[in-house]
Amino acid sequence: MSTPYEISADPARLDAARVHHWLSTDAYWALGRSREKQDRAIAGSLNLGAYDRATGEQLGYARVVTDRATFAWLCDVYVAPAARGRGMGKALVGAALAELEPYGLGRVLLATQDAHGLYGGFGFRPPAEPGRLMALIPR
């Protein structure tokens, strides 16, 4: 059975204004992010969009920061409120991981406040040695 949406990594299809609006106004991790900063993030990343098959309207987004050799960071996974509950988040994560598979990466990381069940279904788990991870967070 076909889904009512499709996932694409074609950057020409992205609605950057819509992605910026979603993330800067409704995503706890990106509230207030400027359009200029979001555009730079898109330009430097692997991006996936989820689109309504009938209308072509973008309904979801995921971004991956990667060197395409050893490491990736899955981030900015977002599904429009009206499109939630149809498996789109799961499809976006699966498509992102499929895009990364040919590179044979040693590690894919992410951070989440509330979607542990979603990511756990793909094998993500807390790091074995969390004390080894550090972050530089400029003030």
Q: What does the secondary structure layout of this molecule look like, with pairings?
A:
Elements: E1 5-8, H1 16-26, H2 35-43, E2 46-52, E3 58-66, E4 71-79, H3 88-100, E5 107-109, H4 116-120
Parallel strand pairs: 4-5
Antiparallel strand pairs: 1-2, 2-3, 3-4
Commentary on this structure:
The protein is an alpha+beta fold and 139 residues long. It has four helices and five strands; from the N terminus they run βααβββαβα. Strands 1-2-3-4-5 form a five-stranded mixed sheet. Strand 3 (58-66) and strand 4 (71-79) form a beta hairpin. Helix 1 (16-26) crosses helix 2 (35-43). The radius of gyration is 15 Å and the shape is globular. The mean pLDDT is 96.
In short:
The chain is an alpha+beta fold.
How many alpha or pi helices? 4
How many β-strand stretches?
Answer: 5
Terminal-residue CA separation: 49 Å
Structural class: alpha+beta
Q: Give the integer mean of the pLDDT values.
A: 96
Helix content: 25-40%
Largest sheet: 5 strands, mixed
- Helix/strand order, N-terminal first: EHHEEEHEH
Strand order of the biggest β-sheet: 1-2-3-4-5
State the shape: globular
Q: Which stretches are poorly predicted, pLDDT < 50 over at least 5 residues?
A: none
Share of β-strand residues:
15-25%
Using only C-alpha atoms, the radius of gyration works out to 15 Å
Give me some keywords for this one.
single chain, 139 residues, alpha+beta, 4 helices, five-stranded mixed sheet, 27% helix
